């Protein structure tokens, strides 16, 4: 079990504030959860009352935040030795493990129950499974056990558009699965690029990230392979009912640039200056953030234009 639970009874140096609890929710990750869930809701072929839609997105966001809090509770020992995460609320002593656990569990329960009441039981069940998958399957098991942690575990971050679609339609469809697949295939190259320029963090924390277990060269090859597969999927999605000319244009342009970034990482020399290596990897990582938001933004615009005779095929 995580050292977070062992240290959870330690006394805090001061009372935690709103900002400390908000940080437990992983707000940057929550932004992606909210946005992709909203796109799933907008792209669905069923009109949703604005109040219902707002409630659905709110409770999906709360569920995502619950996952983040529970992840930080369990991973406090890892976070404490990684520079990127050492200032998080638990390792920095601003919030105890027990408080984070109680906070996360409360939010998880509230989000699932309220989403069921606001929309339907399928959407709530998907949200509950997403929280379970992220906390138990990924955080407690895969992350510390296999270098494929982010490949399999990436499914947790891919569920939000399916939840949004289910909230609107009460069903799962090919379209919602394709949106899931887009995020699922994007996640490995996104996180492997991050791991390349934060490799020592994972070494120190003894997390079996691909960079640690198989080395940088293998990781760069994996990034290229997954990026090629991602590009095929992303462009192909443009020919489905949630795609269209606008989405296809965006997908072709972005995937051409993303493929170039993956090739640059694959071709670069390990003997080159560390600063130059980091620049290439950071550039690809930042591009990956724009990549996903732009693709889902294009899906949303296609859906919003369709009633006016624009967009779609």
Automatic annotation (TrEMBL):
<dbReference type="Pfam" id="PF01040">
    <property type="entry name" value="UbiA"/>
</dbReference>
<keyword id="KW-1133">Transmembrane helix</keyword>
<feature type="transmembrane region" description="Helical">
    <location>
        <begin position="287"/>
        <end position="310"/>
    </location>
</feature>
<dbReference type="InterPro" id="IPR044878">
    <property type="entry name" value="UbiA_sf"/>
</dbReference>
<dbReference type="GO" id="GO:0008495">
    <property type="term" value="F:protoheme IX farnesyltransferase activity"/>
</dbReference>
<keyword id="KW-0812">Transmembrane</keyword>
<feature type="transmembrane region" description="Helical">
    <location>
        <begin position="54"/>
        <end position="74"/>
    </location>
</feature>
<comment type="function">
    <text>Converts heme B (protoheme IX) to heme O by substitution of the vinyl group on carbon 2 of heme B porphyrin ring with a hydroxyethyl farnesyl side group.</text>
</comment>
<feature type="transmembrane region" description="Helical">
    <location>
        <begin position="246"/>
        <end position="266"/>
    </location>
</feature>
<comment type="subunit">
    <text>Interacts with CtaA.</text>
</comment>
<dbReference type="InterPro" id="IPR000537">
    <property type="entry name" value="UbiA_prenyltransferase"/>
</dbReference>
<keyword id="KW-0808">Transferase</keyword>
<feature type="transmembrane region" description="Helical">
    <location>
        <begin position="219"/>
        <end position="240"/>
    </location>
</feature>
<dbReference type="GO" id="GO:0016787">
    <property type="term" value="F:hydrolase activity"/>
</dbReference>
<keyword id="KW-0378">Hydrolase</keyword>
<feature type="transmembrane region" description="Helical">
    <location>
        <begin position="95"/>
        <end position="115"/>
    </location>
</feature>
<feature type="transmembrane region" description="Helical">
    <location>
        <begin position="177"/>
        <end position="198"/>
    </location>
</feature>
<feature type="transmembrane region" description="Helical">
    <location>
        <begin position="149"/>
        <end position="171"/>
    </location>
</feature>
<dbReference type="InterPro" id="IPR030470">
    <property type="entry name" value="UbiA_prenylTrfase_CS"/>
</dbReference>
<feature type="transmembrane region" description="Helical">
    <location>
        <begin position="29"/>
        <end position="48"/>
    </location>
</feature>
<comment type="similarity">
    <text>Belongs to the UbiA prenyltransferase family. Protoheme IX farnesyltransferase subfamily.</text>
</comment>
<dbReference type="InterPro" id="IPR006369">
    <property type="entry name" value="Protohaem_IX_farnesylTrfase"/>
</dbReference>
<protein>
    <recommendedName>
        <fullName>Protoheme IX farnesyltransferase</fullName>
        <ecNumber>2.5.1.141</ecNumber>
    </recommendedName>
</protein>
<keyword id="KW-0350">Heme biosynthesis</keyword>
<keyword id="KW-1003">Cell membrane</keyword>
<feature type="transmembrane region" description="Helical">
    <location>
        <begin position="121"/>
        <end position="142"/>
    </location>
</feature>
<comment type="pathway">
    <text>Porphyrin-containing compound metabolism; heme O biosynthesis; heme O from protoheme: step 1/1.</text>
</comment>
<keyword id="KW-0472">Membrane</keyword>
